[in-house]
């Protein structure tokens, strides 16, 4: 997913820029196939909100033998290449989950307990995979599905995407979109293109809001 110097050397989510403003873009993302896992981050031994990463990394074979089965085989797995960026999505109890193209997407869904959120993390698989040829997960907690095309307003920024900075960028983007006449239709998605060892000022991050 990148190096300490911030170079992005993997396939990235496919989209078309349909409008470019002074500080944001409107993008139309292509349909994609994703692998996902949903979990309670407080129950993860490591990683917290990002605790599902290793589960999905095992599915694609990023850290050893792939934990999947080819459609035409009952035993043989297939290594699947990583893509970028990593996405994080938080949702309120009333909102609908949003899906994104990425190797990883994290969606937080509030349960009846307002203090507890479930996280859905997604890897968007390389663009040559379809529901017909995608390897099947061995781990029952991992699911594979197809997501449709979708439109987002996007702002790009560097640095460490901590909660304070992310919320600042979300509010900035929301105001820019509303001033531009766009209707925001859901919660934000945070995209992170680089691994944690990348120098902070060389990291590429994006905040995204679904729009009509």
From TrEMBL:
Gene3D superfamilies: Regulatory factor, effector binding domain (3.20.80.10)
Cited Pfam families: SOUL (PF04832)
Top-level taxonomic group: Eukaryota
InterPro entries: Reg_factor_effector_dom_sf, SOUL_heme-bd
Recorded family membership: Belongs to the HEBP family.
Protein's recorded name: SOUL heme-binding family protein
Source organism of this protein record: Picea sitchensis
